[in-house]
TrEMBL record:
<keyword id="KW-1133">Transmembrane helix</keyword>
<feature type="compositionally biased region" description="Low complexity">
    <location>
        <begin position="140"/>
        <end position="155"/>
    </location>
</feature>
<keyword id="KW-0472">Membrane</keyword>
<dbReference type="InterPro" id="IPR036737">
    <property type="entry name" value="OmpA-like_sf"/>
</dbReference>
<dbReference type="InterPro" id="IPR011990">
    <property type="entry name" value="TPR-like_helical_dom_sf"/>
</dbReference>
<protein>
    <submittedName>
        <fullName>Flagellar motor protein MotB</fullName>
    </submittedName>
</protein>
<feature type="region of interest" description="Disordered">
    <location>
        <begin position="139"/>
        <end position="159"/>
    </location>
</feature>
<keyword id="KW-0812">Transmembrane</keyword>
<keyword id="KW-0966">Cell projection</keyword>
<feature type="transmembrane region" description="Helical">
    <location>
        <begin position="94"/>
        <end position="114"/>
    </location>
</feature>
<dbReference type="Pfam" id="PF00691">
    <property type="entry name" value="OmpA"/>
</dbReference>
<feature type="domain" description="OmpA-like">
    <location>
        <begin position="173"/>
        <end position="291"/>
    </location>
</feature>
<keyword id="KW-0969">Cilium</keyword>
<dbReference type="InterPro" id="IPR006665">
    <property type="entry name" value="OmpA-like"/>
</dbReference>
<dbReference type="GO" id="GO:0016020">
    <property type="term" value="C:membrane"/>
</dbReference>
<keyword id="KW-0282">Flagellum</keyword>
Amino acid sequence: MTAATTRAALAEAAGHARAGRYDLARRALEPVGDDADALDLLARVHAQQGDLAAADGYWARVQALDPAHEGAREGRRRIRRIWSRRPKPVARRVGAAAAVLLLVAAGTAAGRLLSPAPEEDRAVADELDRLASAVDALESTEAPEPTEAPSTASPLDPVLASLQDPRWTATAEDGHVSVVLAESLFPDGGTALPDDSGDFLADLAAAVEGLHVTVVGHTNDIPTGPGSRYDDNAALGLARALAAAQALADAGGPALADIGIATAADEDPPYPNDTEADRTRNQTVTFLVTP
């Protein structure tokens, strides 16, 4: 695309995003490809919808193109802050506020496109300050004693039941089921899937039919070397997530466009990086499955 058509696509997508037409915003950006401003806007759209894993993945791609990108750095920092918090009984009451707070990283073309007029900027800043105070107040407040015995049933129960398999461990977490593979999926520093991965991916694809899946790429704690195709572990983890998502789609899973992509790099690994065996097992992806 030419620079003019790219700017036009960004403007169109930003208009849809401001109006809450997120599907149309994403569709307008599809032809743009690997453009930092377009990827930044996609990250903001996903953050606004509360899909933090997808937002983090797009911001990781922005950083791979522009390591000094302030909006991507700030967006990922805020996501890491949210992910580092322990789930609390009141957490769902502040989910929308958390998503809004992710969108205030400034200084990028996408940020400017989504921004209101200057006088509205001040009002938004005041509102964000109020929301931040509300978040802090809610986190410091103990949940009241329930007046009725809570139901023990969870919408994740059937998802968890469908994902029982000795080749991975499925665990119900905050709003999703996390699938951690028992063995490594990738060679050291690489993104090529083993020849025998087709069987387990086909079984996983059948188990997640009709469910939403986000693939999170991981690495161990050893940085990428001078001869690597990837600048850092964030880029390597994202490439692994893309490879696994494509293979899952090819095995009969959700369409690639419907699979969330994210990278955890060497942070929050599935296994502790304290033995060579576990470092090898961390050359992998995890699958986050939601109803």
